[in-house]
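Field reference: sequence -> structure
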Amino acid sequence: MADCGSLPQLEYGQFSDWLHQKVGSQRIPIAGSLEVTERCNLRCRHCYIPTVQRAGSRRRELKLPEIERILVEITEVGCLWLLLTGGEPFLRHDFLDIYASARRKGLILTLFTNGTLITRPIADYLSEWRPFKIEITLYGATQETYERVTAVPGSYARCMTGIQLLVERNLPLGLKTMLMTLNRHELDQMQSLADNLGVEFRFDPILNAALDGSNRPAGLRLTPEEVVAVEKTDSGRSSSWPERYRQTAGMEISGRPLYLCGAGKNSFHIDAAGRLSQCLTARNPSYNLREGNFNEGWEQFLPDLVTRQYSEAFPCRACALRMVCPQCPAIGATEMGNPEKPVDYLCRVANLRREAFAPG
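Structure field:
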Protein backbone atom coordinates (compact mmCIF):
# COMPACT_ATOMS: atom_id res chain seq x y z
CA MET A 1 0.00 0.00 0.00
CA ALA A 2 1.28 3.47 -0.86
CA ASP A 3 2.32 5.64 2.05
CA CYS A 4 0.16 8.76 1.56
CA GLY A 5 2.20 10.52 4.21
CA SER A 6 5.21 10.48 1.88
CA LEU A 7 3.44 12.45 -0.87
CA PRO A 8 4.77 15.98 -1.35
CA GLN A 9 2.70 18.70 0.26
CA LEU A 10 1.90 21.81 -1.76
CA GLU A 11 0.55 25.15 -0.60
CA TYR A 12 -2.49 26.31 -2.56
CA GLY A 13 -0.50 28.95 -4.46
CA GLN A 14 2.12 26.36 -5.41
CA PHE A 15 -0.60 23.99 -6.62
CA SER A 16 -2.23 26.71 -8.70
CA ASP A 17 1.09 27.74 -10.26
CA TRP A 18 2.00 24.10 -10.93
CA LEU A 19 -1.34 23.38 -12.60
CA HIS A 20 -1.17 26.45 -14.84
CA GLN A 21 2.36 25.45 -15.88
CA LYS A 22 1.18 21.91 -16.64
CA VAL A 23 -1.71 23.21 -18.71
CA GLY A 24 0.65 25.54 -20.55
CA SER A 25 -0.44 26.10 -24.12
CA GLN A 26 -3.14 23.44 -23.97
CA ARG A 27 -6.68 24.77 -24.33
CA ILE A 28 -8.20 23.41 -21.14
CA PRO A 29 -10.92 25.56 -19.48
CA ILE A 30 -9.63 25.21 -15.93
CA ALA A 31 -11.23 28.45 -14.70
CA GLY A 32 -14.49 30.19 -15.44
CA SER A 33 -17.03 32.70 -14.22
CA LEU A 34 -20.79 32.25 -14.17
CA GLU A 35 -22.99 35.33 -13.93
CA VAL A 36 -26.15 33.93 -12.34
CA THR A 37 -28.11 37.20 -12.67
CA GLU A 38 -27.77 40.74 -14.01
CA ARG A 39 -30.20 42.02 -11.38
CA CYS A 40 -28.93 44.00 -8.42
CA ASN A 41 -30.47 45.62 -5.36
CA LEU A 42 -28.03 48.55 -5.59
CA ARG A 43 -27.80 51.28 -8.22
CA CYS A 44 -24.08 51.96 -8.24
CA ARG A 45 -23.12 54.97 -10.31
CA HIS A 46 -20.10 53.22 -11.85
CA CYS A 47 -21.81 49.90 -12.74
CA TYR A 48 -20.81 48.46 -16.10
CA ILE A 49 -24.15 46.68 -16.60
CA PRO A 50 -26.51 49.25 -18.22
CA THR A 51 -29.82 49.87 -16.45
CA VAL A 52 -31.72 49.12 -19.66
CA GLN A 53 -29.99 45.74 -19.84
CA ARG A 54 -31.30 44.83 -16.39
CA ALA A 55 -34.88 45.52 -17.47
CA GLY A 56 -36.52 42.16 -18.06
CA SER A 57 -33.31 40.33 -17.22
CA ARG A 58 -35.09 37.95 -14.86
CA ARG A 59 -37.01 36.45 -17.79
CA ARG A 60 -33.74 35.83 -19.65
CA GLU A 61 -31.91 34.19 -16.75
CA LEU A 62 -30.85 30.58 -16.94
CA LYS A 63 -33.14 28.33 -14.92
CA LEU A 64 -31.69 26.03 -12.26
CA PRO A 65 -31.86 22.87 -14.44
CA GLU A 66 -30.06 24.72 -17.25
CA ILE A 67 -27.32 25.82 -14.86
CA GLU A 68 -26.99 22.29 -13.48
CA ARG A 69 -26.52 20.96 -17.02
CA ILE A 70 -23.85 23.56 -17.73
CA LEU A 71 -22.05 22.70 -14.47
CA VAL A 72 -21.88 19.07 -15.58
CA GLU A 73 -20.53 20.10 -18.99
CA ILE A 74 -17.79 22.40 -17.70
CA THR A 75 -16.51 19.90 -15.13
CA GLU A 76 -16.41 17.12 -17.73
CA VAL A 77 -13.93 19.13 -19.82
CA GLY A 78 -11.65 20.13 -16.96
CA CYS A 79 -13.01 23.20 -15.14
CA LEU A 80 -11.69 23.39 -11.59
CA TRP A 81 -12.17 27.00 -10.45
CA LEU A 82 -15.53 28.74 -10.80
CA LEU A 83 -16.54 32.27 -9.85
CA LEU A 84 -20.24 32.79 -9.08
CA THR A 85 -21.13 36.43 -9.62
CA GLY A 86 -23.84 38.84 -10.78
CA GLY A 87 -25.44 41.40 -10.55
CA GLU A 88 -26.09 40.37 -6.99
CA PRO A 89 -26.19 36.54 -6.80
CA PHE A 90 -28.24 36.41 -3.60
CA LEU A 91 -31.18 38.06 -5.37
CA ARG A 92 -31.89 34.64 -6.86
CA HIS A 93 -34.11 32.68 -4.50
CA ASP A 94 -32.40 29.49 -5.73
CA PHE A 95 -28.83 30.73 -5.42
CA LEU A 96 -27.91 28.32 -2.63
CA ASP A 97 -29.23 25.49 -4.82
CA ILE A 98 -26.91 26.69 -7.59
CA TYR A 99 -24.07 26.94 -5.10
CA ALA A 100 -24.74 23.45 -3.70
CA SER A 101 -24.86 21.94 -7.18
CA ALA A 102 -21.53 23.54 -8.12
CA ARG A 103 -19.96 22.39 -4.88
CA ARG A 104 -21.16 18.81 -5.42
CA LYS A 105 -19.30 18.86 -8.74
CA GLY A 106 -16.07 19.44 -6.81
CA LEU A 107 -15.54 22.96 -8.14
CA ILE A 108 -13.38 25.40 -6.16
CA LEU A 109 -15.85 28.23 -5.65
CA THR A 110 -15.43 31.97 -5.24
CA LEU A 111 -18.44 34.22 -4.59
CA PHE A 112 -18.67 37.90 -5.53
CA THR A 113 -21.41 39.76 -3.64
CA ASN A 114 -22.19 43.20 -2.26
CA GLY A 115 -22.97 41.57 1.09
CA THR A 116 -26.23 43.41 1.71
CA LEU A 117 -28.45 40.31 1.41
CA ILE A 118 -26.43 37.98 3.61
CA THR A 119 -28.56 36.79 6.51
CA ARG A 120 -27.77 34.60 9.50
CA PRO A 121 -29.17 31.44 7.79
CA ILE A 122 -27.12 32.15 4.64
CA ALA A 123 -23.99 32.73 6.70
CA ASP A 124 -24.64 29.51 8.63
CA TYR A 125 -25.05 27.58 5.39
CA LEU A 126 -21.81 28.96 3.95
CA SER A 127 -20.06 28.15 7.21
CA GLU A 128 -21.13 24.52 6.89
CA TRP A 129 -20.41 24.28 3.15
CA ARG A 130 -17.46 26.63 2.84
CA PRO A 131 -16.44 28.27 -0.44
CA PHE A 132 -12.82 28.85 -1.35
CA LYS A 133 -13.30 32.63 -1.13
CA ILE A 134 -15.99 35.27 -0.67
CA GLU A 135 -15.31 38.81 -1.92
CA ILE A 136 -17.48 41.75 -0.90
CA THR A 137 -17.16 45.09 -2.63
CA LEU A 138 -16.87 48.02 -0.24
CA TYR A 139 -17.86 51.35 -1.77
CA GLY A 140 -16.77 53.52 1.12
CA ALA A 141 -15.80 53.45 4.77
CA THR A 142 -18.67 55.69 5.87
CA GLN A 143 -22.40 55.59 5.21
CA GLU A 144 -22.30 58.92 3.40
CA THR A 145 -19.68 57.85 0.86
CA TYR A 146 -20.92 54.28 0.47
CA GLU A 147 -24.48 55.36 -0.29
CA ARG A 148 -23.33 58.19 -2.55
CA VAL A 149 -22.00 55.40 -4.76
CA THR A 150 -24.82 52.85 -4.34
CA ALA A 151 -27.71 55.35 -4.38
CA VAL A 152 -29.66 53.11 -1.97
CA PRO A 153 -30.39 54.36 1.57
CA GLY A 154 -29.68 51.77 4.25
CA SER A 155 -27.34 49.74 2.04
CA TYR A 156 -24.25 50.60 4.11
CA ALA A 157 -25.70 49.16 7.32
CA ARG A 158 -26.82 46.00 5.52
CA CYS A 159 -23.38 45.55 3.99
CA MET A 160 -21.69 45.95 7.39
CA THR A 161 -24.09 43.38 8.87
CA GLY A 162 -23.30 40.91 6.10
CA ILE A 163 -19.57 41.38 6.58
CA GLN A 164 -19.86 40.87 10.33
CA LEU A 165 -21.90 37.66 9.92
CA LEU A 166 -19.16 36.19 7.71
CA VAL A 167 -16.32 37.36 9.97
CA GLU A 168 -18.01 35.83 13.02
CA ARG A 169 -17.97 32.45 11.25
CA ASN A 170 -14.36 32.81 10.18
CA LEU A 171 -15.28 32.42 6.54
CA PRO A 172 -12.60 33.15 3.89
CA LEU A 173 -13.60 36.76 3.30
CA GLY A 174 -11.87 39.48 1.33
CA LEU A 175 -12.93 43.10 0.87
CA LYS A 176 -12.24 45.16 -2.24
CA THR A 177 -13.20 48.45 -3.78
CA MET A 178 -13.38 50.15 -7.13
CA LEU A 179 -11.45 53.34 -6.52
CA MET A 180 -13.09 56.41 -8.03
CA THR A 181 -13.55 60.12 -7.50
CA LEU A 182 -16.43 59.43 -5.10
CA ASN A 183 -14.48 57.33 -2.59
CA ARG A 184 -10.78 58.01 -3.17
CA HIS A 185 -10.61 60.04 0.03
CA GLU A 186 -11.64 57.02 2.13
CA LEU A 187 -9.13 54.48 0.77
CA ASP A 188 -7.05 54.49 3.95
CA GLN A 189 -10.17 54.11 6.08
CA MET A 190 -11.35 51.16 4.01
CA GLN A 191 -7.95 49.54 4.42
CA SER A 192 -8.11 50.14 8.18
CA LEU A 193 -11.61 48.68 8.37
CA ALA A 194 -10.38 45.49 6.69
CA ASP A 195 -7.28 45.36 8.91
CA ASN A 196 -9.41 45.67 12.04
CA LEU A 197 -11.60 42.80 10.84
CA GLY A 198 -8.56 40.69 10.02
CA VAL A 199 -9.47 40.26 6.34
CA GLU A 200 -7.67 40.98 3.07
CA PHE A 201 -8.31 44.19 1.15
CA ARG A 202 -7.52 45.21 -2.41
CA PHE A 203 -8.48 48.04 -4.73
CA ASP A 204 -8.80 48.52 -8.45
CA PRO A 205 -8.13 52.10 -9.57
CA ILE A 206 -9.30 51.75 -13.19
CA LEU A 207 -12.96 51.89 -14.19
CA ASN A 208 -14.09 50.56 -17.57
CA ALA A 209 -16.88 51.84 -19.76
CA ALA A 210 -20.30 50.19 -19.53
CA LEU A 211 -21.04 47.13 -21.65
CA ASP A 212 -23.17 49.24 -24.00
CA GLY A 213 -20.18 51.51 -24.66
CA SER A 214 -21.43 54.32 -22.41
CA ASN A 215 -18.63 56.32 -20.83
CA ARG A 216 -20.77 57.04 -17.76
CA PRO A 217 -18.54 54.94 -15.44
CA ALA A 218 -15.40 56.41 -17.03
CA GLY A 219 -16.53 59.84 -15.87
CA LEU A 220 -15.73 58.74 -12.31
CA ARG A 221 -12.15 57.70 -13.08
CA LEU A 222 -9.19 59.04 -11.19
CA THR A 223 -6.73 60.85 -13.42
CA PRO A 224 -3.76 58.74 -14.61
CA GLU A 225 -1.56 60.80 -12.30
CA GLU A 226 -3.84 60.02 -9.33
CA VAL A 227 -3.85 56.30 -10.21
CA VAL A 228 -0.06 56.08 -10.10
CA ALA A 229 0.20 58.31 -7.03
CA VAL A 230 -2.08 56.04 -5.00
CA GLU A 231 -0.26 52.94 -6.25
CA LYS A 232 3.05 54.40 -5.10
CA THR A 233 1.68 54.66 -1.55
CA ASP A 234 0.52 51.01 -1.56
CA SER A 235 3.26 48.60 -0.49
CA GLY A 236 1.88 45.67 -2.45
CA ARG A 237 1.56 47.50 -5.75
CA SER A 238 4.78 49.48 -5.39
CA SER A 239 6.69 46.22 -4.98
CA SER A 240 4.81 44.10 -7.53
CA TRP A 241 5.07 46.52 -10.45
CA PRO A 242 8.90 46.55 -10.60
CA GLU A 243 8.84 42.74 -10.55
CA ARG A 244 6.40 42.63 -13.45
CA TYR A 245 8.66 44.92 -15.46
CA ARG A 246 11.65 42.67 -14.75
CA GLN A 247 9.73 39.55 -15.78
CA THR A 248 8.59 41.04 -19.08
CA ALA A 249 11.78 42.91 -20.02
CA GLY A 250 12.92 41.77 -23.43
CA MET A 251 10.06 39.29 -23.75
CA GLU A 252 9.17 38.67 -27.37
CA ILE A 253 5.64 38.01 -28.60
CA SER A 254 5.57 35.43 -31.36
CA GLY A 255 3.15 35.94 -34.21
CA ARG A 256 0.57 38.69 -34.31
CA PRO A 257 -1.95 37.79 -31.58
CA LEU A 258 -4.53 40.42 -30.76
CA TYR A 259 -5.23 38.86 -27.35
CA LEU A 260 -2.32 38.09 -25.03
CA CYS A 261 -4.26 36.85 -22.00
CA GLY A 262 -5.66 33.44 -21.15
CA ALA A 263 -9.28 34.40 -21.89
CA GLY A 264 -10.77 31.71 -24.11
CA LYS A 265 -7.59 29.66 -23.75
CA ASN A 266 -7.74 28.52 -20.12
CA SER A 267 -10.72 30.53 -18.88
CA PHE A 268 -14.22 31.54 -19.93
CA HIS A 269 -17.30 33.54 -18.96
CA ILE A 270 -20.98 32.59 -19.07
CA ASP A 271 -23.52 35.37 -18.67
CA ALA A 272 -26.92 35.19 -16.99
CA ALA A 273 -28.68 34.23 -20.24
CA GLY A 274 -26.28 31.38 -20.97
CA ARG A 275 -24.03 33.07 -23.51
CA LEU A 276 -20.46 31.78 -23.51
CA SER A 277 -17.70 34.30 -24.21
CA GLN A 278 -13.97 34.77 -23.72
CA CYS A 279 -14.28 36.76 -20.51
CA LEU A 280 -16.47 39.11 -18.53
CA THR A 281 -15.38 42.07 -20.70
CA ALA A 282 -15.09 40.39 -24.12
CA ARG A 283 -18.74 39.39 -24.44
CA ASN A 284 -19.34 39.83 -28.15
CA PRO A 285 -19.64 37.70 -30.12
CA SER A 286 -20.90 34.90 -27.88
CA TYR A 287 -22.13 31.31 -28.11
CA ASN A 288 -25.64 30.42 -26.92
CA LEU A 289 -25.39 27.46 -24.54
CA ARG A 290 -29.16 27.08 -24.65
CA GLU A 291 -28.84 26.01 -28.28
CA GLY A 292 -25.64 23.99 -27.92
CA ASN A 293 -23.34 22.58 -25.28
CA PHE A 294 -20.22 23.90 -23.58
CA ASN A 295 -17.79 21.57 -25.37
CA GLU A 296 -19.06 22.73 -28.78
CA GLY A 297 -18.72 26.36 -27.77
CA TRP A 298 -15.26 25.83 -26.33
CA GLU A 299 -13.86 23.72 -29.18
CA GLN A 300 -15.64 25.16 -32.21
CA PHE A 301 -16.60 28.76 -31.40
CA LEU A 302 -14.00 30.35 -29.11
CA PRO A 303 -10.81 29.29 -30.96
CA ASP A 304 -11.55 31.63 -33.86
CA LEU A 305 -11.84 34.53 -31.41
CA VAL A 306 -8.76 33.90 -29.29
CA THR A 307 -6.49 33.35 -32.30
CA ARG A 308 -7.43 36.61 -34.01
CA GLN A 309 -4.46 38.48 -35.49
CA TYR A 310 -3.97 42.22 -35.42
CA SER A 311 -3.73 44.27 -38.59
CA GLU A 312 -0.89 46.46 -39.81
CA ALA A 313 -2.83 49.44 -38.50
CA PHE A 314 -2.72 48.19 -34.88
CA PRO A 315 -0.87 51.00 -33.05
CA CYS A 316 0.15 48.84 -30.06
CA ARG A 317 1.93 46.12 -32.06
CA ALA A 318 5.47 47.38 -31.38
CA CYS A 319 4.87 48.94 -27.95
CA ALA A 320 7.40 47.79 -25.34
CA LEU A 321 4.73 48.09 -22.65
CA ARG A 322 2.21 45.78 -24.26
CA MET A 323 2.80 42.95 -21.76
CA VAL A 324 2.17 45.21 -18.75
CA CYS A 325 -0.35 47.65 -20.19
CA PRO A 326 -3.96 47.70 -18.93
CA GLN A 327 -5.06 47.98 -22.56
CA CYS A 328 -7.20 45.09 -23.77
CA PRO A 329 -8.88 44.50 -27.15
CA ALA A 330 -12.16 43.91 -25.31
CA ILE A 331 -11.89 47.32 -23.64
CA GLY A 332 -11.07 48.91 -26.99
CA ALA A 333 -14.08 47.25 -28.59
CA THR A 334 -16.39 48.41 -25.80
CA GLU A 335 -15.10 51.93 -25.24
CA MET A 336 -13.76 52.85 -28.69
CA GLY A 337 -15.84 50.59 -30.93
CA ASN A 338 -12.71 48.90 -32.28
CA PRO A 339 -10.62 46.16 -30.58
CA GLU A 340 -7.47 47.57 -32.20
CA LYS A 341 -8.05 51.14 -31.07
CA PRO A 342 -6.34 51.92 -27.74
CA VAL A 343 -7.94 53.93 -24.97
CA ASP A 344 -5.79 57.02 -24.47
CA TYR A 345 -6.47 57.06 -20.72
CA LEU A 346 -4.95 53.57 -20.35
CA CYS A 347 -1.93 54.52 -22.47
CA ARG A 348 -1.25 57.40 -20.11
CA VAL A 349 -1.56 55.14 -17.07
CA ALA A 350 0.87 52.63 -18.62
CA ASN A 351 3.49 55.26 -19.37
CA LEU A 352 3.23 56.88 -15.96
CA ARG A 353 3.57 53.46 -14.32
CA ARG A 354 6.75 52.84 -16.29
CA GLU A 355 8.22 56.15 -15.15
CA ALA A 356 7.30 55.36 -11.53
CA PHE A 357 8.09 51.65 -11.24
CA ALA A 358 10.24 50.30 -14.07
CA PRO A 359 13.74 49.38 -12.80
CA GLY A 360 16.35 51.74 -14.14
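Note: The CA atoms of residues 72 and 352 lie 45 Å apart.
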